[in-house]
Amino acid sequence: MNKQKYLIAANWKQNGDVKSATKLINDIVKLYKKNQPKCDVLILPPAIYLSTILSRINYYKIPLKKISLGIQNISPFIEGAFTGELSANMSKDFKCSHALIGHSERRHVFFEDDKTIASKTRLSLESNMITILCVGETITEYNKNLTKKVIFRQLKSALSKSLELFKSDHSKVIIAYEPVWAIGTGKSASLDDIVNIHAYIYKTLNKLLGTDHHMIKILYGGSVNNNNASSILKLPNVNGALVGGASLNSKKFIDICSSI
Ligand code: PEP
Q1: Closest CA to 135 of 165, 180, 166, 171
Q2: How does pLDDT run across 4-48, given as a tens digit for each residue?
């Protein structure tokens, strides 16, 4: 069973403005200082507010190892004429240590395919960022009992361009299991399904990489809230959570962090 230091990540998505983002990070930091949760915390704000969020974390003198920063998406290209895109390296100017790759909204709303996600994974690892690779099935795939097949394909193809980088440093990859039908719906996966799929992800990583990779973190994401967090986080092979909606509420988010 894999139990290491937990990571609770806040995916703010495309929400808020500079005023509300500043208030949210101030409130999160204050509650974090008060509650002293045992987990590591990661904030993934809209990229345009990274500088603001970084300056607030610095103002409260919280080490970036404890509350770290990440980018929600990166360009599949290193640099150049790619209007609107941001690179992993650019995010490092704002002390981002993590990059979220292959979130279901990127896959299903912006039609990112497996090949694009493989390129992003490679670039993120080459930039020495901790890469959170999201995988998960749609409701149709779930109902057809295709979850494992989909996850195998997503893992295999996302890591196909990065196997040697991945093998050389396991700490640089985190997998987030996020069933698409559980994201933002208020209906998280059952505890049995989470246990089953997290174990399957380990088995698959071992198969793809050829050795035992029990030090890789696997997060669960999909309607995690302050009521269900403690039972989800207790499960074997669950090393944290990726939290969307509930991370926009400082109290709920720190309650999730404190439920470990
Ligand atoms: C997410 O965006 O990754 C997510 C899990 O969202 P929510 O917690 O709102 O389901």
Answers
A1: 180
A2: 789 999 999 999 999 999 999 999 999 999 999 999 999 999 999
CA-closest residue to ligand 1 atom 7:
244
User: Domains of the chain, with CATH numbers?
Assistant: 7-69+91-257 (3.20.20.70)
Cα 180 to middle of ligand 1, angstroms: 9
Percentage of the chain lying above the pLDDT 90 cut: 90
- Percentages (nearest 5) of helix, strand, coil residues in the chain: 45, 15, 40
* Amino acid at the residue 237: N
Closest CA to 153 of 172, 137, 139, 175: 137
Q: One of 103, 112, 137, 141 is an active-site residue; which one?
A: 103
Angle between helices 114-126 and 147-159 (to 10 degrees): 50
For residue 234, report the distance from its CA to the centre of ligand 1, in Å: 19
Is 214 considered catalytic here?
no
pTM comes to: 0.96
**What residue type is assigned to position 136 of the chain?**
G
Q: Which of 112, 137, 178, 213 is catalytic?
A: 178
108 noted as active-site residue: no
d(CA 212, CA 190) in angstroms, rounded, equals 27
Give strand ranges (E) for 96-251.
96-101, 130-135, 173-177, 217-221, 240-243
Mutate to test the pocket of ligand 1, among 7, 8, 11, 249 (most ligand atoms within 8 A of CB): 11
